């Protein structure tokens, strides 16, 4: 009896939620739940985030060379940020974020990931909300590139649909050619290991691995502002008779290690085009020096000259 | 109530940890353990199906609403509601076995994971693709199954701790004694006693000596728990009136009727009519005891007849040791005194029993005492004459028989009773007990016996349909049967055959016209 009633309620909720879309009483319910649990998550994340960072230590991105190169900016950032609360990794991410937003002219609000969606969901919760100027369908990025878009917001938290979500569709432009296409998320699968799927409208285009993609401006810059780096083509998929060209895209962002992200609260005045893209990796000629061993020299180094 | 509060807290903690911590971990495989699901399972395994369903629904809805939230609100509410219900449903089948409980939790975790994937598919959550399911589901099932026992244990400890809070400074027994009738009958009381009830069972099994120690203190409970695999489990059953008995055997306060001053301190009695309830207790001796005693006058005359005679002969011999004074708690059902088999039982008892427990069995009848009981014992008995009488009576006797059996084993067949000294005494004189008596005397207590005995189900009203189905399924047949207590009408024959009873034993059975 109880079971039947509860199951009915659950099914009704699912139905209403499905039909309501973005309005209706369930949104109020969701908002209330978001406020309550979001607040708790914010509070708890203060404790859990360092733990998570510790547990996941070693899997972070970035090389020591980058760290050195950014040292100066990190120092500048240190003046503006609450130094004690941020880890070294966060400094790095923030500096990259500021760099990127600076290049693109985005005005951003920095936020921390405080909660991650359950099992199959590709969503995260950030600790910034309407009080920080965040609104629905703002673009979310980090120092590497596009993260996702805001799908729900409360006063102090917001929820991001990651670009890897199976329901996410991002309009993109290919870097050299300016061709349009769109990228869909893979969901949570092992096979793609997080590779996005790119489809390009031009049936005649020849895609080549290594081509970078940036977002294409959405209408009113929502849900995506223009010019945010998305990823590079890693593999071209045989078309197999379809009208669109297919490719797999490796995103710039490591979606499994999100910590500090930025929410674009004001789009750039003009389309940054490809200016935000990271410099293409140039093959660096490796210099190999061969030093023949000279036994005599080792025998008497001081006099061997 | 206390449990409800605890459940909310535990679930909230699990939910927040899940979202802010567990889901962020980069585990080798795609899945992550689902703390909320495991918590729901652990809580539901200690409650009724309805409560389990409510718990699951609430937890699932919270998970749906808490940011980042699910694809559609109600998704997890649906899944967890089902899982909670199922857990509550299978709980009775698990018995006291900790292994079975853990296995059930593991199975439920796997089912829950699979169900959530299935629901995701059904409502076409874009993220739940077959590829994603293949990637995530196996690892999440493995992780959940591994984590299930730990969470089960943690939740169990939390519940016990919370239950312990209520107990406060006082002993369980004292608490029970003071409990108001309403409390005793209602859930709160039940909750409080949860632990005590379990112990009760254990204490009973362990024997009267223990029982005294078990009077409800935590330590005592633990001791009892040690022996009994079942004790660690939090059961709804604990809450039943029976708890009162064991926990504070002297105080029968937990019965439905408010404890009458006169009855206080009496030894536990067997329930009369309330077979269903007591039956549910699944053989907890305590259950029987919890009921308020009937008016004494009635019962006495009846009992005396059959009992005395047998006893006279029996008591004289076996009682020689002399009943210990303190024995009430241990004494258990008064009916025990009457056994014909006592002579045999006594011998056995010497080796296996603790002395005191045995003695207690014997009845305090004046007559008996005069003849057989030692002087010391006699004094003790007098104080409680009333009780004994009540046991003798028809219904109680039968039940007593039942209790005896179950109590001994801690809920298994009556046959077990033989092992523990305490159990035996339980057998009532009348119809049922006799048979058993016979068994005790003549046969070594074996499991088989217990099984047979059970076969003699004297169901008072017959098992409910559901129970019958379960019995047919075979699993918990023993327990199920036992629970129905007993009117000894019909099928005594098998047991009777075993008993080799005398004509005396027949008295009171239906065949002979009974009382």
What would you note in describing this structure?
The complex is a heterodimer of chains A (305) and B (515). Chain A has 305 residues and is of the alpha+beta class. Helix content of chain A is 29%, strand content 24%. Chain A contains 6 helices and 12 strands. In chain A, a hairpin with a 6-residue loop joins strand 1 (107-116) and strand 2 (123-126). In chain A, helix 4 crosses helix 5 (88-104). The longest helix of chain A has 31 residues, at 25-55. Chain B is an all-alpha fold and 515 residues long. Chain B is built from 28 helices and no strands. The model of chain B is unreliable at 168-365, 367-463 and 474-515 (pLDDT under 50). The chains are: A alpha+beta (305), B mainly alpha (515).
The oligomeric status of these chains comes to heterodimer
Instruction: Label the structural class of chain B.
Output: mainly alpha
In whole angstroms, the N-to-C terminal distance of chain B is: 45 Å
Secondary-structure element string of chain B:
HHHHHHHHHHHHHHHHHHHHHHHHHHHH
List low-confidence stretches of chain A: none
Helix content of chain B: 55-70%
Order of helices and strands of chain A: HHHHHEEEEEEEEEEEEH
- Largest sheet of chain B, if any? none
Q: Helical region count of chain B? A: 28
Q: Could you report the average pLDDT of chain A, rounded to the nearest whole number?
A: 81
According to DSSP, the number of beta strands of chain B is: 0
- Overall average residue pLDDT of chain B: 56
Counted beta strands of chain A = 12
Q: First CA to last CA of chain A: what distance? A: 98 Å
Gyration radius of chain B, to the nearest Å? 25 Å
């Amino acid at each position: 009896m109880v079971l039947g009633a509860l199951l009915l309620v659950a099914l009704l909720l699912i139905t209403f939620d499905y039909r309501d879309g973005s309005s209706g009483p369930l949104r109020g319910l969701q908002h209330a739940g978001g406020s309550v649990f979001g607040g708790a998550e914010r509070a708890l994340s203060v404790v859990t985030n360092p733990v998570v960072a510790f547990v996941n230590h070693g899997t972070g991105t970035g090389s020591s060379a980058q760290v050195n190169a950014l040292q100066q900016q990190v120092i500048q950032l240190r003046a503006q940020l609450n130094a004690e609360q941020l880890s070294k990794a966060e400094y790095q991410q923030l500096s990259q974020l500021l760099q990127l937003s600076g290049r693109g002219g985005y005005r951003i609000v920095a936020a921390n990931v405080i909660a991650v969606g359950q099992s199959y969901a590709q969503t995260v919760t950030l600790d910034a909300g309407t009080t920080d100027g965040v609104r629905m369908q703002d673009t979310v990025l980090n120092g590497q590139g596009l993260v996702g878009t805001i799908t729900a917001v409360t006063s102090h938290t917001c929820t991001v649909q990651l670009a890897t979500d199976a329901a996410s569709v991002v309009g993109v432009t290919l870097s050299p050619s300016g061709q349009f296409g769109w990228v869909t998320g893979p969901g949570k699968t092992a096979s793609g290991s997080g590779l996005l799927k790119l489809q390009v409208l031009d049936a005649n285009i020849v895609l080549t691995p290594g081509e970078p993609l940036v977002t294409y401006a959405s209408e009113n810059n929502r849900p995506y502002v223009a010019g945010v780096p998305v990823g590079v083509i890693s593999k071209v998929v045989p078309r197999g008779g379809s009208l669109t060209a297919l490719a797999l895209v490796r995103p710039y962002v490591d979606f499994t290690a999100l910590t500090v992200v930025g929410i674009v609260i004001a789009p750039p005045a003009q389309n940054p085009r490809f200016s935000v893209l990271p410099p293409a990796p140039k093959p660096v000629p490796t210099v190999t020096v061969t030093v023949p061993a000279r036994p005599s020299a080792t025998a008497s180094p001081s006099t061997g000259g | 109530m206390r449990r409800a509060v605890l459940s909310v807290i535990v679930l909230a903690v699990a939910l927040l940890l899940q979202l802010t911590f567990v889901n962020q971990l980069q585990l080798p495989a795609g899945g992550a353990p689902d703390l909320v699901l495991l918590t729901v399972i652990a809580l539901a395994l200690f409650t009724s199906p309805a409560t389990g369903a409510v718990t699951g629904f609430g937890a699932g809805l919270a998970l749906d609403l808490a940011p980042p939230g699910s694809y559609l609100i109600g998704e997890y509410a649906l899944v967890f509601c089902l899982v909670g219900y199922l857990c509550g449903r299978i709980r009775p089948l698990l018995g006291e076995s900790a292994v079975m409980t853990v296995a059930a939790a593991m199975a439920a975790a796997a089912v829950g994971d699979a169900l959530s994937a299935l629901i995701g598919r059904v409502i076409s959550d874009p993220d739940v693709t077959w590829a994603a399911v293949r990637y995530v589901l196996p690892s999440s099932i493995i992780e959940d199954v591994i984590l299930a026992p730990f969470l089960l244990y943690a939740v169990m400890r939390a519940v016990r701790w919370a239950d312990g809070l209520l107990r406060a400074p006082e002993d369980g027994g004292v608490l029970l004694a003071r409990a108001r009738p309403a409390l005793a009958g209602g859930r709160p009381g039940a909750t409080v006693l949860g632990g005590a009830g379990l112990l009760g069972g254990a204490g009973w099994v362990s024997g009267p000596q223990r029982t005294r120690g078990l009077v409800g203190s935590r330590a005592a409970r633990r001791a009892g728990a040690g022996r009994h695999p079942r004790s660690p489990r939090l059961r709804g059953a604990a809450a039943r009136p029976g708890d009162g008995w064991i926990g504070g055997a002297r105080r029968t306060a937990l019965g439905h009727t408010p404890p009458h001053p006169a009855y206080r301190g009496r030894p536990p009695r067997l329930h009369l009519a309330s077979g269903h309830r007591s039956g549910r207790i699944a053989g907890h001796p305590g259950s029987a005891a919890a009921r308020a005693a009937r008016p004494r006058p009635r019962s006495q005359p009846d009992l005396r007849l059959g009992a005395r005679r047998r006893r006279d002969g029996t008591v004289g011999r076996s009682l020689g040791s002399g009943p210990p004074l303190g024995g009430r708690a241990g004494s258990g059902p008064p009916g025990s005194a009457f056994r014909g088999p006592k002579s045999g039982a006594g011998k056995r008892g010497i080796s296996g029993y603790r002395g005191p427990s045995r003695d207690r069995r014997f009845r305090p009848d004046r007559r008996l005492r005069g003849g057989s009981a030692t002087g010391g014992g006699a004094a003790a008995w007098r104080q409680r004459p009333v009780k004994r009488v009540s046991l003798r009576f028809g219904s109680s006797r039968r039940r007593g028989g039942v209790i005896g059996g179950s109590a001994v084993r801690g809920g298994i067949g009556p046959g077990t009773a033989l092992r523990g000294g305490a159990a035996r005494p339980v057998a009532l004189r009348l119809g049922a007990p006799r048979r058993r008596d016979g068994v005790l005397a003549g046969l070594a207590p074996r499991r088989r016996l217990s099984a047979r005995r059970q076969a003699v189900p004297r169901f008072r009203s017959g098992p409910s349909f559901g129970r019958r189905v379960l019995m047919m399924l075979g699993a918990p047949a023993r327990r199920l049967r036992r629970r129905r207590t007993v009117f000894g009408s019909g099928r005594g024959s098998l047991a009777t055959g075993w008993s080799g009873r005398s004509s005396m034993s027949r008295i009171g059975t239906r065949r002979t016209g009974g009382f």
